[in-house]
Design goal:
mainly alpha; 19 helices; 73% helix
């Protein structure tokens, strides 16, 4: 299957730093930082093609699990891309749905993100695809969808600030979070570039963009030291709470799958004043206690708002937060 699709899709990790350079111009730091991003990029693309060629779970899962802990979630994200693509090409099967409830359930959010990444290559409506699923994390399909547009069509999505038709309301917020994640990579984690792009957006969209940046920096390759991470949090300014929600989402992703990472701890320490295990527990506890806010707010957003409230409470009363973490 990959022999047929590779000339059509032309998806190669070697092209990713060139895409970043086309958006921001040639800079020494883009080449340098992309050396650190390379394991993430290659894992995503390689696992996508592996899934396309080996979709049987008994064969696929050992291949995904053979990847390093730091990038295993990314490998499952690539699998989500591959299974989603196969479901669109061969709709009589439900590979992604079966994988989500089977061997991929610990990586469910990453699988949904990967599924969304694949959809722009197909003549399908992402909202219709999302409607096939009934759990809260299905909204992450639109995060992946937004990432694709931000990474591969930045002129329209980030400069002209245009969303695809029908991506409105809460779907638009999730799309913007994906745009923010893409910006972390295309900017080569450069705080000034990130802040400059987000600062040109209407204020109402900036929080979601910063939330995507928070998720990306806490989950993906660690390229920032402590001073640089502090500068990034400071740059978020009034949207630091949304940035922190993205960090908490990343912490939960990692700890549900059982793979911690030093850069996740660093992002949590700077934005939450706690390690990633503590932040993940906060996020998980909020998820368990989430109740619908009203008839129009998705439970996924109600959960995120609960996480945001927890962050606000910690910053208003650090002493109480410290006792709670013990």
């Amino acid at each position: 299957m990959s022999t047929i699709l590779k000339p059509v899709l032309r998806l190669s990790a070697d092209e990713f730093p060139k895409i970043a350079a086309r958006q921001f111009g040639a800079h020494n730091d883009i080449d340098r930082v992309w050396q650190d991003f390379a394991p993430v990029a290659h894992t995503l693309v390689d696992s996508f093609w592996t899934t396309v060629d080996h979709p049987r779970f008994a064969t696929l899962v050992p291949m995904l699990d053979a990847t390093d802990d730091d990038v295993r979630g990314v490998a499952y994200e690539g699998a989500g891309m591959g299974l989603s693509l196969l479901d669109c090409l061969l709709p009589y099967k439900k590979r992604l749905a079966d994988f989500l409830t089977g061997p991929g359930r610990a990586y469910k959010p990453l699988l949904y993100i990967g599924a969304g990444l694949a959809l722009p290559r197909m003549p399908v409506d992402p909202l219709r695809i999302m409607a096939r699923y009934d759990d809260d994390d299905r909204w992450l399909i639109l995060d992946g969808y937004g990432f694709y547009y931000g990474f591969f069509t930045p002129e329209r999505s980030l400069r002209q600030q245009v969303r695809p038709r029908r991506i409105t309301g809460y779907a638009g917020q999730m799309f913007d979070r994906g745009l923010g994640r893409s910006l972390w990579f295309t900017s080569a984690a450069n705080t000034q570039r990130i802040a400059a792009v987000i600062g040109r957006f209407p204020a109402a969209r900036r929080g979601d963009l910063w939330s995507g940046v928070g998720l990306a920096c806490a989950y993906a390759a660690g390229v920032l030291d402590e001073p640089a991470m502090r500068r990034l949090v400071t740059a978020a300014g009034p949207d630091a709470d949304q940035f922190a929600v993205g960090v908490a989402v990343a912490a939960e992703f990692r700890h549900v799958a059982g793979h911690s990472a030093g850069h996740t701890d660093l992002a949590c320490a700077i934005s939450w004043g706690a390690d990633s295990a503590t932040v993940a527990r906060i996020a998980t506890a909020e998820r368990a206690g989430t109740a619908p806010l009203d008839m129009t707010t998705p439970r996924y957003e109600a959960w995120r708002q609960g996480v945001r409230t927890a962050w606000t409470a910690r910053h208003q009363d650090p002493t109480t937060a410290a006792r709670a973490d013990q």
